[in-house]
């Protein structure tokens, strides 16, 4: 499955993130469910990720959110 790259502004600078389409779909759904922008969610993840790659941190964040809703 090919990656989809999107550009997002974080802390005043542009960055791009490449994720699989299923992850983008879930990220969009979660942003809508929380009434937040995609950039706001990614900014929150970015602030918490430390030295981990942003795309990996986004994937783990989505996985953790799905686990929370399942439990």
Q: Which helices and strands, and how do they pair?
A:
Elements lengths: L3 E7 L2 E7 L1 H14 L3 H11 L5 H17 L1
Quaternary organisation of the protein chains: single chain
DSSP summary, beta strand count: 2
Number of domains: 1
Terminal-residue CA separation: 29 Å
Structural class estimated from helices and strands: alpha+beta
Biggest sheet statistics: 2 strands, antiparallel
- Helix segment count? 3
Lateral strand order in the biggest sheet = 1-2
Task: Describe this entry's structure for a reader.
The chain is built from three helices and two strands. It has a two-stranded antiparallel sheet. It has one domain. Helix content is 59%, strand content 20%.
Provide keyphrases for this structure.
alpha+beta; 3 helices; two-stranded antiparallel ribbon; 71 residues; 2 strands; single chain; 59% helix; globular
A few lines on this structure:
The chain is an alpha+beta fold and about 70 residues long.
């Amino acid at each position: 499955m090919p990656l989809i790259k999107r550009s997002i502004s974080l802390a005043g600078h542009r960055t791009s993130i490449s994720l699989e389409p299923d992850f983008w779909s879930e990220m969009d759904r979660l942003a809508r469910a929380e009434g937040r922008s995609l950039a706001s969610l990614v900014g929150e993840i970015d602030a918490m990720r430390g030295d981990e790659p942003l795309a990996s941190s986004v994937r783990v964040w989505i996985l953790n959110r799905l686990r929370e809703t399942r439990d």
